[in-house]
Design goal:
Elements (H helix, E strand, L loop, with lengths): L4 H14 L7 E9 L6 E2 H13 L1 E15 L2 E12 L4 E13 L2 E9 L1 H22 L2
Length: about 140
């Protein structure tokens, strides 16, 4: 039995909430784009980014689906994410995701969001986490 697009989307947002999106959900040639970065990333960079994001959250960000529509190879989802960051700040943002699915796996993710909470709350912590990682690799 193959998973339908709705089920794949639910699994994807549950994985985002855990901070680890497994290979089994993603096609090998999967791409990611967001309004925050403005550029495309490959699967490895996307998965690294999700783990890095989880590292700056206490208990991860919880992604809640407000609406989900699937047709042909596309899934559109309105989603909210919230959680507590490691500096104690609360984080909340609204997102619109467009997922493309092929053969039961996600081939692309486009993430539209409000960039202000990301820029103000997430970016400084992500930059710190990256600097620490780079420092420990020297």
């Amino acid at each position: 039995m193959t998973r339908d697009s709705h089920q794949i989307a639910h699994e994807f947002f549950a994985a985002l909430s855990r901070g680890d999106v497994p290979d089994s959900l993603l096609a090998p040639d999967m791409t990611f784009w967001s309004t925050s970065s403005g550029k495309s990333s490959d699967k490895a960079r996307f998965q690294f980014g999700i783990r890095l994001l989880a590292s700056i959250c206490e208990g991860g960000l919880i992604y809640r689906i407000d609406s989900l529509t699937a047709e042909d190879d596309r899934v559109a989802a309105e989603v909210q994410a919230q959680g507590r960051l490691i500096n104690g700040d609360e984080y909340h943002n609204r997102y619109a995701f467009v997922l493309r699915v092929r053969d039961g796996r996600i081939t692309s993710v486009c993430e539209y969001n409000d960039p202000i909470p990301i820029r103000e709350k997430l970016v400084p912590l992500l930059q710190d986490a990256m600097a620490k990682m780079q420092g420990s690799q020297r």
